[in-house]
Amino acid sequence: MVGLVIRVWGIILSDTISYDSLRGATAADVRKAIRSGAYSKHTAGLAAGKLQCNLAILPEAYALDFLRFCQRNPKPCPVVGVSETGSPYVPTLGSEIDIRTDVPQYRVYRDGVLAEELDDISDIWRDDLVTIALGCSFTFENALIEAGINIRHIEQNRTVPMYSSSLELVPAGPFHGTMVVTMRPIPYDRVADALKISAAYPQAHGAPVASGDPAAIGIANLNAPEWGEPVEVRAGELPLYWACGVTPQNVLLDAKLPFVITHKPGCMLIADVGERDELSNHTSLTSVQQGDYHYA
Amino acid sequence: MVGLVIRVWGIILSDTISYDSLRGATAADVRKAIRSGAYSKHTAGLAAGKLQCNLAILPEAYALDFLRFCQRNPKPCPVVGVSETGSPYVPTLGSEIDIRTDVPQYRVYRDGVLAEELDDISDIWRDDLVTIALGCSFTFENALIEAGINIRHIEQNRTVPMYSSSLELVPAGPFHGTMVVTMRPIPYDRVADALKISAAYPQAHGAPVASGDPAAIGIANLNAPEWGEPVEVRAGELPLYWACGVTPQNVLLDAKLPFVITHKPGCMLIADVGERDELSNHTSLTSVQQGDYHYA
Questions:
Q1: Do B23 and B82 fall within a single domain?
Q2: In the predicted structure, residue A190 carries a pLDDT above the cut 50
Q3: Mutate which of B58, B67, B71 to disrupt the A interface (most A C-beta within 10 Å)?
Q4: B68 with B170, same domain?
Q5: Is B276 exposed, middle or buried (0-12, 13-18, 19+ CB in 10 A)?
Q6: Which residue is closest to B130 within chain A, CA to CA?
Q7: Quick one: B108 and B175 in the same domain?
Q8: Mean pLDDT computed over B153-157
Q9: What is the CATH classification number for the domain harbouring A117?
């Protein structure tokens, strides 16, 4: 389907629009393209600086147990937002977001089986649905790169390698399983920095959960990731493993809920808040200006 | 009531036991004293190094909204644990904790009014209750002191001053209100350190939410805190304000739930985990040993 793209002062009218033409576009323009159905592919590298999220949209009856599960497994499941029941808005992600339309590609599961892939869930929306948004690791990757730590899969334009592991999750209600991890090889002399930098992003999975020998965490073959693509680990580098957002997706599947909506891997929700913003009404004081109040 | 204390290798048998005799006691011994009813007073300074928590014990029907409220207001309401419905155990706080007996003094509210103060809630326990444990600021105070930043209320053996403020909370369900804050005066040349150190403890309220002029956040008189005791702010010092755990207590009160249990201020739950432990099954990698796995 070839579409004619007419760009009018921030308005994109098109049947389809390519990834390349959205590179460098503002978050608002990317969202318009997704919302209109003109763009329904992956989001890595788009709307740079905006928080991207994994999503779990599930009936309210399961929401309390899923929040317990996330609280007990904060590394793979860092909660960045929770909607009211039946509402397509998530307060901490910005008022411009509509959960029913703003994800490029949704996946609808019924009883643990993939039933539909849609680019808009307005027609199947229910008033008992709760949306739980979870952070993802794009954020700390940017911070590592800024610190001069090369990220091989980004450099080689591949999807990060993701592996099933033997790391047990703490269960809650119907939710249980083992952790999916990402792997990034880091030079030995930058490992301490990588640990420290990623630890500062708990909403993006935080610090690694393991390092070194893949067999120690139940990974049979680093060259055969279950998701994504393998990258080389060179001499002088240590594999570091971080908790991955595929974990909650798998857990939701395995719970065989009657109805749950997630999304195609890589096709994230682009939120309307900065990826380094505090998701709080009351942001932290990070510095004090000269001439600030002197208590008399 | 005078009790005769017989200390037998970790077992304390007594009608009542004084705060002073518990100073320096192990967490296990303090918990035994609380659980037996022998000690029902404040917990600041006891079981040094163990995480102390604020508690909200409420009917499951309100738990989802309260967790939403905490997620939207993470500074005053940092969640450190959530129980299963009807269970007195909180997985992330250690298996030795029994919520029904391990808090020195409980407060039971019915329809927003204080109905009872008890040292044991086993008799009124219900199978629809969910316990949500929240962190408190004792943790970052220890870190500030270790960094050589004097905490005046601790030095003077007073309760930290706490104030109602005009800072609005983000609502969820029946939960809404304004933030209660603590105030600690910090020398100007240590303010940057105080911000950085406390920011590292999001489970203990994190970095300050404001500084300087109390009127800017709706505080009329620094010498008249609504809770705790005033401390002097000297020349060369800046008042810093942190979110306070009295906030969720007030919010629960104002919501006028049919039934909710909290606790007397200062009489915290002493958890069985270290105050600086990660509350996660999968702790962060913080360093890599020499001779760690070399990928061949």
A1: yes
A2: yes
A3: B71
A4: no
A5: middle
A6: A64
A7: no
A8: 88
A9: 3.40.1640.10
Q: How far is the C-alpha of B179 from the C-alpha of A218, rounded, in Å? A: 46
Note whether B44 and B100 are same-domain residues: yes
Size of interface A-B (CB pairs under 8 A): 161
Q: Tell me the shortest Cα–Cα distance from A38 to chain B, in angstroms.
A: 33
Determine, for residues B209 and A91 on separate chains, whether the beta-carbon distance falls below 8 Å: no
Per the structure, how many domains does chain B have? 2
Residue A296 within a domain: no
pLDDT digits (tens, 9 = 90+) for B119-148: 999 999 999 999 999 998 777 888 899 999
Model confidence, pTM: 0.90
Of B167-176, B220-229, B230-239, B271-280, the range with the lowest mean pLDDT is: B271-280
* Residue type (1 letter), B220: A
Q: Is residue A291 part of a domain?
A: no
Write the CATH number for B197: 3.30.2040.10
Name the residue of chain B whose CA is nearest to A66's CA.
B64
Spell out the residues 6+ positions from residue A265 whose beta carbon is closer than 8 angstroms to its own: A227, A246, A249
Q: At CA B223, angle to CA B220 and CA B225, rounded to 5?
A: 75
What residues are paired with B241 via a beta bridge? B183, B210
Say what percent of chain B tops pLDDT 70. Answer: 92
User: Residue A237: helix, strand or coil by DSSP?
Assistant: strand
Do B132 and B252 have their domain in common?
Answer: yes
Residue B23 pLDDT class (50, 70, 90 cuts):
confident
B168 in the same domain as B235: yes
Distance CA A232, CA A243 (A): 20
Q: How confident is the model over B196-254, as pLDDT tens digits?
A: 999 888 888 999 999 999 999 999 999 999 999 999 999 999 999 999 999 999 999 99
Using the structure block, give the residue that is written with the tokens 């009404």: A281
* Amino acid A294: pLDDT: 58
Residue range of the domain that includes B180: 138-247
Task: Say yes or no: ipTM exceeds 0.90.
Answer: no
If asked whether residues A158 and A258 sit together in one domain, one would say no
Report the pLDDT value the prediction gives residue A293, as an integer from 0 to 100.
Answer: 64
Asked if residue A295 is part of any domain, the answer here is: no
Q: Look at residue B69 and tell me if it is in a domain.
A: yes
Region of residue A197 (phi > 0: left; psi between -120 and 50: alpha; otherwise: beta): alpha
Do residue B65 and residue B119 come from a single domain?
A: yes
Nearest CA-CA distance, residue B286 and chain A, Å = 6
